[in-house]
Amino acid sequence: MSSPDSPSTPPETPPPVTLPVPTLTPTPGELAHAQRRGGRSALLGLGLVGVVALTSPVLGYLEDVDNAREELLDHLSNQARVQADALGVHLVLLEAELARVAGHPTLLPEDGASPAERALLDSAFYHSSLFSEGVALLGPRGERVWSDPPGMTLGASPITRRPWFQEMVARRAPSIDLMEGEGGPLVVAVPMVKEGQLKGVLLGEVRTEALPTRATEETALFLMDAQGRLLLPAPPLAHPEGFSSQLRALAKAPGPVMVDGTRMMGAAAWVGRTDLLLVVLEEEEAATAGLRSRFLRQLAFHIALLICTLALFLVLLRHSYRSLLEAEERLRRQETMAALGTAASLIAHEVKNALNGIQAALSVLRATPAGSELPVRGLRSQVERLGHLARSLLSFGAPRAALRRSCDLHLLVEEALQAVRMLPESEAVELRTSLEEGLTLQGDAALLVSAIDNLVRNAVEAGAVARDTGLRPAPWVSVNLSREGGEAVLLVEDNAGGVDPRLEPRLWEPFATGRAKGVGLGLPMARTSVEAHGGSLTYTRRPQGSMFTLRLPLERPS
């Protein structure tokens, strides 16, 4: 139905819209969605199981690594103590050999080396295997008196300025230290003191290779003095600032240390009663390589076992899930059959009531004089009732596409009210209307008239029932059409007491009804039609009855 003042050329209409039909059985898309959702849940559960299963070997590996570190530190500590003790004993022997010769009464270096003194020194130290670099006799001011070999080096700086020489003179006790600078050689110096005066110094030098310390392919040795200078390795490696303090800290607590960017585990021990510190280091990676290889094998085995378990679990889960879907499908079919049985019972009851009314009207018609309209009105009412039922069932079972065009909502409401006024129940119910004109929209006139007809028809029938039961002596139905912004608002209100609260949650479901008349298709079809036009249909409980609010978007002016 079009407005009389609409333009001669109809506006461009949107494509036809097919109204959705409520169904009780799931669609293939819904089943696929349920399967995907179940699959995601199963995969999430399997992922958690996998994480838990892989946590055990990882934790075991970390514990094994910690144990290996502790065992390595114990081994390095023992090795450092053994080598430090061996080096300490060796240095004591060197010191004792020098002290034995230094205490000889005929050895007086302050007045030079006599032939007898040279003979004594040659017999004691000539090509001695104890002192690989040689032996020298110095005067009280550090001057060379005798040496074997004669060209034996004593360093570039004056001996009297070296820390070990000054400490030896101050303490009047033997000193063991580096000769000069890092890399050695190692010097053992014994003072020759007579009557409280320093008469000379007897010293021997030892090369690094001659010391009883041995590094292996896995370990590295460092020997350092009190000033942090390195004797081992020779030549000394370049090391960053603070490296000596890191090595010195290992004497108190063995642990990790960084050497040339490599993480190593180390332990240290003091050499006898000297100020020398022997450090033993070993690469942590080399120590844990076997553990790492074993861990990777165990991890690969656990992963393979987990994959097999997960594959078997997926097969069983898929089988169980399919069984569950089949059980749900059977349950849906049972629910569908139950719903169809309820709908069939309601339809049969409605048809039976109409046929009883027709039969009663025909009986009255036989005994009524010609010209009486009472039986004819009863027949018309029952036929209209059956027609409305048939139209509702056809529209619900096979909805047609909505063809939109410009419509005057005022005329559509009037058309629906005209059909409702033909109902017998309308004589007992006061119908109040307030309709604003000039409200146009793009829509399907037949679908909208059917939706409005259902709303008003339900209200009128509910008012008639309320009057017959004595609930409302004067029932009324109010139909109000107005504009709110860009929407048309239709209010259908009655004073029939409202919808049964137990039925209200299912008010918009098909075949849900609480009245003797009707099969419960009017409201679901009305909401579907309204929503297909971009509108809304809602229910509100009022103090005296019900109010349905229908909202539709208005046509925008050209």
Protein model, in words:
Helix content is about 45%, strand content about 20%. It is an alpha+beta fold. The protein has a five-stranded antiparallel beta sheet with strand order 3-2-6-5-4, with helices on both faces. Strands 8-7-11-10-9 form a five-stranded antiparallel beta sheet. It has a five-stranded mixed beta sheet with strand order 14-16-17-19-18. Helix 1 runs antiparallel to helix 6 and helix 9 (about 445-470) packs antiparallel against helix 10. The radius of gyration is 56 Å and the shape is rod-shaped.
Task: List how many beta strands DSSP finds.
Answer: 19
State the strand order across the main sheet.
3-2-6-5-4
Helicity, in percent?
Answer: 40-55%
What's the alpha carbon Rg, rounded to whole Å? 56 Å
**How confident is the prediction overall: mean pLDDT?**
79
| pLDDT < 50 runs, ≥5 residues | 1-25
Shape label: rod-shaped
The largest pleated sheet is described as: 5 strands, antiparallel
Q: Which structural class do you get from the secondary structure elements?
A: alpha+beta
| Secondary-structure element series | EHHEEHEEEEEHEEEHHHEEHEEHEEHEE
Beta-strand percent range = 15-25%
For the terminal residues, how far apart are their CA atoms? 19 Å
Helical segment count? 10
